[in-house]
Amino acid sequence: MTVGRGTWGRAALVSALLVLCPLPGSGEGRGQEPVAPSALIGEARAALARGDGIAAEMKLRAALGNGAPRGEVAAWMGEAYLAQGQLAKARSWLEEGGFAPGSAARGWRALARLEQLSGHFEAGQAAFAKARALTPDDPELWVEMGRLDYVRGAHMEAIAAADHALELGPHNARALQFKGQLVRDRYGLAGALPWFEKGIMAAPSDVSLLLDYAATLGDLGRAAQTVTVTRRVLELMPGNPQAYYLQAVIAARAGNFELARSLLTHTEGQLDMVPGVQQLRGVAELALGNPQTAIEAFEAVLRQRPDSRRTKDLLARAIYEAGQLRFATMRFGPDIARDEASPYLLTQVARAYEVLGNRQKAGELLDRAARPAQAQLRVVGRGGPIGRLLAEGQGRAAERAAEAMRQDRPGFFDSQALAGDVQLALGHPAAAQERYALATRVRMPPGLFRRRVEAFLLAGDPKGAQGLVQGYLDQSPQSRSALRAAAGLAMASGDYLRARAILTWLRENGGARDVRLLCDLALVETGLGHRQEAREAAQAAYRLQRFSPDAAQALGFALAVSEEAPGTARALLAKARSMVGETPLIAEGEALLDDVPNAG
């Protein structure tokens, strides 16, 4: 019998297997002795340990057929359905309780995970309380409780749970993995490695740990080690889609998009609901000249992350390269109307209008793209009540609300970070830094890192900013946010050699179309006396965005310094002034031109 992929669902396939391949005790093979239910339950538990929910379900159904009471299998059947992602079926086995004494703790833990996945955090806590009453010294129970605390926002409670789990089981793989994940969020990539390595020493064949380790190595730029670890995962679990995805990321970072696409096919659609996978697929297809396929992938990402500006920029490029010019103007019309389009997106749509013959509309969008970016504070929870108060200019009311929330929930990351955002918006960088420091006891995502750097600089503390940036780079040496901040600090201090090294690396590793980066590089090259390199970097920026005031003044200044084409230099500086007014760079460039004979 031939069954095409996608014809049946997983549940139907299991049912068919039960019919076509009868298990012991099913009535077939009467010459064989029935397998004891306890043995089948043991085999199901082993399957669950491997992450194979389907095999566990089959063994448990066989145990039921051989006389096992419902209570003996309920906890494990619930886990089997959780492993398959079938939450409704898992609930039918877990919600009533009634677990046999030997499996009750696991049953309540499985119910707690189910409630967590369903967004019922209080019910999850109640189920965990029942499990804790039975097995208070189980480190893996404390890990699961910590994970629930983390998801519901009680971050300090999660950290305390992780520490207690390690006290109970210093060599427990799950406890070490959770600690490593928390350290990665708080301190960075490098700090997490020892925890993952200790966990792997305790459980060398633990696929989940190996994948966390591989992903962290990859983010640290250790490509060869990442590939080695993922190959080990594939030996332990052939066909593991996460391992192939991590290998595809490494291939894409190396510029081998053909290999990246090939590796993604090995995931066999199992990760298609993961936005990062679809984003990588779209980037690979776009690089390989398949814009239509890339469009489909980027649209899949936006269905889950509708506010992703990076994905919208990539989608705009794909639509333009596919020649769907009219669609480009329609697809991004709402973003443009809400003033939520990036300069790159505005430029792409403007190019579409220009090809369609609507030069007036193209010019309007190019003018908007050329506007200097307004420094906007992107607060945590900006769509919430406090974010709206800030947006409406009610700073004092936002401050009162943020401080009340901070006092009410001091161990929550969002409470401290949002209170810091409000203080920064009110012009109180020292107070903002105090609250940010409390938030970073939990984690320091790139956005919060950038705001902490800004708070240091606003407070007139460049040494504090430098220490923060260097500490971040020690843990995450390839962080683009930290590298850009380091380059900015180097430029401000006159260390042009360091700034040039950083900006050049960024340009060669994905920044070749970053207009602002190229402009900064042009200024650094100028400061080093590299006139030709400065002119080339500025020209590259200007070619990408002719209506950018940054690009216009960078190129105008580079030409003024080189004393070449003084008329063009003066015109570019005048163009930049018309868009942003007088700037020190424009004034310096024109002063240089005044000293050049026949520069008018």
Tell me what you see in this structure.
This protein has 600 residues and is mainly α. It is 73% helix and 0% strand. It has 35 helices and no strands. The chain has helices spanning 10-20, 37-49, 53-65, 70-84, 87-94, 104-117, 121-134, 139-152, 155-168, 173-186, 189-202, 207-219, 223-236, 241-253, 257-265, 275-287, 291-304, 309-321, 325-331, 333-337, 343-355, 359-370, 385-391, 395-408, 413-425, 429-439, 446-458, 462-475, 480-493, 496-508, 515-527, 531-544, 549-562, 566-580, 584-594. Helix 14 (241-253) packs antiparallel against helix 15 (257-265), helix 30 packs antiparallel against helix 31 (515-527) and helix 33 packs antiparallel against helix 34 (566-580). It is elongated and about 100 Å long. The protein starts with 9 loop residues before the first helix and ends in a 6-residue tail after the last helix.
